[in-house]
Amino acid sequence: MGAQASSEQVDEVVARLEEAGASAHVSHGRDATVIGAIGERELLATLPLEGFPGVEQVLPILKPYKLVSRELRRDATVIEARGRRIGDQYFGFIAGPCTVETREQTLETARVVHAEGVTMLRGGVFKPRTSPYAFQGLGAEGLEILAEARELTGLPVVTELMDPRDVEPVVEIADVIQIGARNMQNFNLLSEVGRAPKPVLLKRGPASSIEELLMAAEYVVKEGNTQVILCERGIKTFERSTRYTLDISAIPVLKHETHLPVIVDPSHAAGKRDLVLPLARAAVAAGADGIIVEVHPRPEEALCDGPQQIPAAEFADFAHEIRALASLLGKTIG
Amino acid sequence: MGAQASSEQVDEVVARLEEAGASAHVSHGRDATVIGAIGERELLATLPLEGFPGVEQVLPILKPYKLVSRELRRDATVIEARGRRIGDQYFGFIAGPCTVETREQTLETARVVHAEGVTMLRGGVFKPRTSPYAFQGLGAEGLEILAEARELTGLPVVTELMDPRDVEPVVEIADVIQIGARNMQNFNLLSEVGRAPKPVLLKRGPASSIEELLMAAEYVVKEGNTQVILCERGIKTFERSTRYTLDISAIPVLKHETHLPVIVDPSHAAGKRDLVLPLARAAVAAGADGIIVEVHPRPEEALCDGPQQIPAAEFADFAHEIRALASLLGKTIG
Amino acid sequence: MGAQASSEQVDEVVARLEEAGASAHVSHGRDATVIGAIGERELLATLPLEGFPGVEQVLPILKPYKLVSRELRRDATVIEARGRRIGDQYFGFIAGPCTVETREQTLETARVVHAEGVTMLRGGVFKPRTSPYAFQGLGAEGLEILAEARELTGLPVVTELMDPRDVEPVVEIADVIQIGARNMQNFNLLSEVGRAPKPVLLKRGPASSIEELLMAAEYVVKEGNTQVILCERGIKTFERSTRYTLDISAIPVLKHETHLPVIVDPSHAAGKRDLVLPLARAAVAAGADGIIVEVHPRPEEALCDGPQQIPAAEFADFAHEIRALASLLGKTIG
Amino acid sequence: MGAQASSEQVDEVVARLEEAGASAHVSHGRDATVIGAIGERELLATLPLEGFPGVEQVLPILKPYKLVSRELRRDATVIEARGRRIGDQYFGFIAGPCTVETREQTLETARVVHAEGVTMLRGGVFKPRTSPYAFQGLGAEGLEILAEARELTGLPVVTELMDPRDVEPVVEIADVIQIGARNMQNFNLLSEVGRAPKPVLLKRGPASSIEELLMAAEYVVKEGNTQVILCERGIKTFERSTRYTLDISAIPVLKHETHLPVIVDPSHAAGKRDLVLPLARAAVAAGADGIIVEVHPRPEEALCDGPQQIPAAEFADFAHEIRALASLLGKTIG
Predict the structure, then answer these.
(1) Which residues of A258-274 are buried (b: 16+ CB within 10 A; e: fewer)?
(2) Cα B289–Cα B293–Cα B294 angle in degrees, nearest 5
(3) What is the CATH number of domain A79-333?
(4) Could you tell me the CA-to-CA distances from C278 to B269, C149, C269, D277 in Å, in that order?
(5) C-alpha span between A116 and C142 (Å, rounded)
(6) Beta bridge partners of D178
(7) Which residue of B30, C124, C315, D192 has the fewest C-beta atoms within 10 A of its own C-beta?
(8) Which CA distances in Å does D195 have to D143, D169, D200, D225, D272?
(9) What's the pTM value of the predicted model, to 2 decimals?
């Protein structure tokens, strides 16, 4: 309460807290009166205390998430798809084209990344594009190609879901459903995949805080789907030499806060091929449970994000470095 | 092209540009070779030039939007709903509850704001909330209450659409469809409202650039719906004394770039009631075509955003100041 | 304290607080133990409580500034220089060249802005430039020109001090000493001007929070100089259509937190001439105690910041609009 | 030039470019006229082209720095101080107290870090503190203690210079002069150390772009001192779970742009002890030429930045991990 708050104003806040089933402890200082409230966090979060006269600030002490928190569950969650694992000692190595453009490009890429021991295959068929004039993805047709690539390699496939109306076809084909950065706070979509029988790869929005990412995961887990992989992919800052600023600290912070696995997408953060390897190495060294990278046979012909895709011909060297580092850190890829 | 680029690499880029129907002009400097490309902007934007070997950077000179640009259409677009106008000399004064909580609260607020001469009534029934434990809105039931408030006051109603599966009921009741900040890049939703027969109020995402906002509007207009109102409501920055940082410069920048009307939501930017009036005044002075503010009979009981809602009892003073300033700037409210 | 904190760890923190003369109140919740500490804010701020085992977070409840705070002094501070005032009902209208380039350009600009009723004359002679190859200002020679412009117009002059070794000549000539944005946390320089017998115009750093700005002002006031004018001039954000993002909310926030006058520099925030007028109007409407703008007889020949300087020929219109708005808001310019 | 630019306006820009010794190439498109200018970058950077009528935007194609650029000098610069090296294959491992508090604390820390094979000793005696009420460092007295720690361990010492008036005593004792983040654009200070006979460790400002950091280094090198170490230590963003956001991408970007060595300060970026090791590992993996970390015998008693200092008792484990990773990446510590 501000220095000018009256004792009636203090009493009103206390009364409201007690009415809501919380207990309130009042301490009077010279410059402020502090009311400590103890109760259920979900309940306290919904009380509109800042709207009360005399209230200067409301400082939440407990975190607003619960089901995803490390406090609730000390052991790391391990996500499994077709026998491949992510979490705890298992390092998920996900690679593939940014976008499924053609059957040939997708199968060729799938073969290359499979040969280098990746554990999952990525590929977008519904593409969120900033410009309405850009290629929007193959849609349902692309899902068939992904299924064929899976048959060819045995790798589980990760693909993005953008629209609640596409839940059915995507859930049928995908082994892991990706929620893209721009949809991280599409709450209806989160609830939908919270009821799906497949793991979810949830990307952090470019302007979303770590706390907001955890709240988005809470939306999914609350519906019953506890199989959520979090993914850091860069945030918006003033720095212009990279597309986004990869928030490498998010990895240890998230590993401390939640039991869910945390992976990194260095391709979208960087926006430039030369940065993908150093950022991927940094992610492994910071303790990430996996990485997801984009590979293309001929990036200069890519319909989307060409500059950041690793040429297929250079992928063996890339994979070699990642394996060496993951091994030094005691991780198993497989 | 970088200083080390070979002449073969330069030729490859030129060849690709010409293949795509653009013309290419090469200038050789001591430290770089510059290739100027002239062609259709939609086409150039999709060429993956940054993926070519030897290319150091690609600098777009033309803006990527077209239909929404001031270059295409010099005259300001005026949006009309039930006889109320926004754009050009018409100042849109939109007010109402953050959320439709009950019939009583909504009708009471509607009466108060109507008495002070606002031109549209706002009220959310589908609420995007960071926490899955927070009140999510009344849904379809709330739409009925909004319709009743419209009947009572004659004011057109503005309400948010969050899910493409709710297009039908929202389009039926709403006079203006709001796309919230978190859905600014929900491209499928944008395309849906692009085919709706109602004006769209498109809020800027908290991490979206002005250019991205214009591209989102382009998604709507491309489908045929040219009735789009843009809304600045604060961006995410390092500053913590306000919920978001209201980007007041966005108003003159947008007015220069586009023919669409531009309004400001000072309530969400501020997050604190005391700041709403100074920010609303600043918006008018900066040249905004309108404001949208939240009002509640008893903010301390609000189920959502209590701290930033203007108490109904103080709304007359608020409206008085806005009218005086709009009038000084030559605007008509009505 | 975290959920796992032992009672010994709680006792250690309490002991340390009491040793430092503060009182400590312990509340035990199910998920956390909260220790409320009451004592002198300067003292509490220096205790390294976050370094203690078991401590999860430290949330300061009192603001860390004191001498500049509105709580200490309810009445607005009015700054005076040669009979011109800024603060409370007095609106400071400061204009002049970005940089003193030549005697002619400076005197010509001084004459123009004086004719339009500005209250102070600005002009830089020591220029902080991002590039070592850019014009660095005329130095001491420029101070003489400023003195001549003052003699000509009777206007007090504002000029920047960059180096503690230049305190003497600058204090001798300047009526108001400017501390630039890049030096906002040059603490030795702040202490120096804290001992100077002239008012200080302190610009907010582009990455400095409002709280940090107030702490910088506290450095000045602590040395005895209470004549400090705060200046918002834009912060660094992800938005690229303006050089900086003018934080318009800083004005009402600062007016609430401090008794010091708050002005706005729209020229540096915008970086573009067309934006200066709308941003200046927004500043007045938001409640600023003044503005500081750049004017040049021929901006296309300016040695510094040409794009944002108002052409002298357009200044009469500019001044007219500012006067009308300031008058509507009940401010006196003079 | 904008779509509305007249041919006179185009001619004026061309004339100004040619007058300045640059050559100008004009291309006419349907929606814009593009003028390509080729000339010396220092010269072009100072032309106020954006101030000319009809000019819509100025896009620099060449980088504004020169002496520090990789284009000028392909070979990596190696910095040496008392036989210890940083740059190319040499990894600089710098550790020590945040602040020299007492002789005992400093010597004890020096002994611990020396035993674990660090290559330089850090310790602040002039401390830039946000609050005027916080401990400001021991000043000259602290320099004596650092000299004693050097004698004891043989390690070169790194210490911060804040004020141009302290150049002499600092240059006399320090082996490497640190310029702190808040002084990165204190251009007079940069010029001073540009004339000093000691290497400079230049920290990136929390709101400074990579380009601005390189321009600051250019200020130092331009005066003749080519011995500059760049240091990434976190930038200001909206994320609040860490003090700053460590910009890990800055390492590969800087290594590509400049021949100067690039190190990382994970302690200040994190603000929390638990994050220092994962961030330090990420820095090594991203290709940094060194790290600088803070160590304290009893962090809970530290006068400054206690929460982020590594307890001396845990430093052996920390150093072990860093050595293993540096070795995997082919770096030599010594």
Answers:
(1) bbbbbbbbbbbbbbbbe
(2) 165
(3) 3.20.20.70
(4) 19, 28, 12, 49
(5) 67
(6) D160, D201
(7) B30
(8) 21, 15, 11, 6, 36
(9) 0.93
Q: Indicate yes or no: CB of B34 within 8 angstroms of CB of D36.
A: yes
Interface pTM, i.e. ipTM: 0.92
How far is residue D297's CA from residue D292's CA, in Å, rounded to a whole number? 17
> pLDDT tens across D200-230, in order?
999 999 999 999 999 999 999 999 999 999 9
What SS3 class is residue A247?
A: strand
Q: How distant is the alpha carbon of residue D61 from its chain centre?
A: 24
In this predicted model, what pLDDT tens digit does every residue of C189-233 receive, in sequence order? 999 999 999 999 999 999 999 999 999 999 999 999 999 999 999
Q: Which of A195, A152, D273, B19 is nearest to C52 (CA)?
A: D273
Is residue C6 pLDDT above 80, yes or no?
yes
Determine the angle formed by the axes of helices D250-257 and A273-285, rounding to 10 degrees.
Answer: 140
Smallest CA–CA distance from A189 into chain B, residue: B163
3-class SS of residue A90: strand
d(CA D23, CA B11): 23
SS (H, E, C) chain C: CCCCCCHHHHHHHHHHHHHCCCEEEEEECCCCEEEEEECCHHHHHHCCHHHCCCCCCCCCCCCCCCCCECCCCCCCCCEEECCEEEECCEEEEEEECCECCCHHHHHHHHHHHHHCCCCEEECECCCCCCCCCCCCCCCHHHHHHHHHHHHHHCCCEEEECCCHHHHHHHHHHCCEEEECHHHCCCHHHHHHHHCCCCCEEEECCCCCCHHHHHHHHHHHHHCCCCCEEEEECCECCCCCCCCCECECCHHHHHHHHECCCEEECHHHHHCCHHHHHHHHHHHHHCCCCEEEEEEECCHHHCCCCHHHCEEHHHHHHHHHHHHHHHHHCCCEEC
Are β-strands C157-160 and A262-264 bridged in parallel, bridged antiparallel, or unpaired? unpaired
Q: What's the CA gap between B274 and D45, in Å, rounded?
A: 44
Instruction: Please name the member of C131, C163, C302 whose beta carbon is closest to the beta carbon of D188.
Output: C163
pLDDT digits (tens, 9 = 90+) for A180-220: 999 999 999 999 999 999 999 999 999 999 999 999 999 99
Residues 70-99 of B with CB under 8 A from D: 71
**D138-167 per-position pLDDT tens digit:** 999 999 999 999 999 999 999 999 999 999
One-letter amino acid for residue A332 of the chain: T
Helix axes C103-115, C315-328, angle to 10 degrees: 40
Question: What does the DSSP 8-state code read for residue D50?
Answer: G
DSSP state of D205: P
In chain D, % of residues over pLDDT 90: 71
* B238 in contact with D, Cβ within 8 Å: yes
Chains touching chain C at 3 or more Cβ pairs under 8 angstroms? A, B, D
The pLDDT value given to residue C25: 81
- What is the distance between the alpha carbons of residues D297 and D314, in angstroms, rounded to a whole number? 10
DSSP type of residue D160: E
Residue A41: list chain C partners with CB under 8 A: 31
Q: What is the pLDDT of residue A42?
A: 65
Q: Where do the CATH 3.20.20.70 domains begin and end in chain C? A: 79-333
User: How high is the pLDDT of residue D90?
Assistant: 98
The 10s digit of each residue's pLDDT in C246-259 is 999 999 999 999 99
What span, in angstroms and rounded, lies between the C-alpha atoms of D334 and D323?
Answer: 11
Q: What are phi and psi of B84, to 5 degrees?
A: -95, 145
Interface test with B, best of A127, A187, A214 (most B CBs within 10 A): A187
Chains that touch B (3 or more CB pairs under 8 A): A, C, D
List the Cα angle A137/A143/A149 in 5-degree steps: 110
Structure tokens at A25: 């402890």
| C-alpha closest to that of B13 among B25, B30, B31, B4 | B25
